[in-house]
Amino acid sequence: MSKKKQVFEPKVNGQVGMYVCGVTAYDLSHIGHARVYVTFDVLYRYLRHLGYEVRYVRNFTDVDDKIISRANELGEDPISLSRRYCEEFRQDMLYLYCLTPSVEPRVSDHMPQIIDMIKQILDNGYAYRVEGDVYFNVDKFPEYGRLSGRKLEDNRAGERVAVDSRKKNPADFALWKAAKEGEPCWESPWGLGRPGWHIECSAMSAAYLGYSFDVHGGGMDLVFPHHENEIAQSCAACKQSNISYWIHNGFVTVDSEKMSKSLGNFFTIQQVIEFYHPLALRLFLMGTHYRSPINYSDVQLESASDRIFYIYQVQNI
């Protein structure tokens, strides 16, 4: 979190633990997602090339508001819907020549670990209960905002965002959500419900890498609130929690706007590889510094295709 260049030094000599936040599996993945996982595939391959034994964990979020909403639209079971799109994502990664991670945990398979972590956070005084919900109390964590550079005052009431009046601070976030009709839910000490998004990654990373590991990564859009909240809740559960390097890749843009499903300006991986070789898409995504934005266009993909063709020609001379 120093935001400075540092010599890479793993916590255990010769070994690297790396956690990358995976997709929320409710639809086909677009090339903005592809950039994340190609970026970290390159890092994974390079660390292995240097001789490190790398334990690479990349999760699937299969319990989430977006999944529930999409399942309701289609009249499907949310978990079944998500599992289908998890398999689509795996196939996309094979198309893009991404190595399979060491572990690919799903949220729905880790409820005991998630519930145990929430219990620990409550026991340590960093959270509170409200009518079946459990919220993290950001005022109890003085270092909140260190990763993103945001101050708590930035999240105070008075903005155009609806604030839950039951919260002690508008920035407090849900660790556990009380059950609602028609949503998947699990038994917990606080009643039936499901976890908040942020606690899911903290619990799964701790389950496979412990509270102290080397690399945590994802897209730049995850810096706040997701990764900021992960740091807070992991440290609240275990004071020894420490991640050495936070790595975030830049966006894929279309006409200088971030590619996203919410804006409707996205192209799925499968749409793109209908017209271009998957290696051309991979090369395009690697065509600039990993933190810089990269603008998607047919011209860029044509150029990447030409370079791939040239490489094949040179190899066969």
Reading the helices and strands in chain order gives EHEHHHEEEEHEHEEEHHEH
Could you report the average pLDDT, rounded to the nearest whole number?
94
CATH architecture: 3-Layer(aba) Sandwich
Which fold does the CATH topology refer to? Rossmann fold
* Residue share in helix: 25-40%
Enzyme class: ligase
Pfam families: tRNA-synt_1e (PF01406)
Protein name: cysteine--tRNA ligase
Family: Belongs to the class-I aminoacyl-tRNA synthetase family.
Task: Describe the structure in brief.
This protein has 317 residues and is an alpha/beta fold.
What does this structure look like?
- By secondary structure, this protein is of the alpha/beta class.
- It has one domain (15-315): Rossmann fold.
- Helix content is 37%, strand content 16%.
- The chain contains nine helices and eleven strands.
- The protein has helices spanning 31-49, 65-74, 78-95, 111-123, 197-209, 223-237, 269-272, 278-285, 298-315, and strands spanning 15-20, 53-58, 127-130, 133-136, 173-178, 193-195, 212-219, 242-249, 252-254, 257-258, 294-295.
- A four-stranded parallel sheet has the order 2-1-7-8, sandwiched between helices. Strands 3-4-5-6 form a four-stranded antiparallel sheet.
- Strand 9 and strand 10 form a beta hairpin.
- Helix 5 crosses helix 6 (223-237).
- The longest helix has 19 residues, at 31-49.
- The protein is globular and about 70 Å long.
- Residues 156-161 have low confidence and may be disordered.
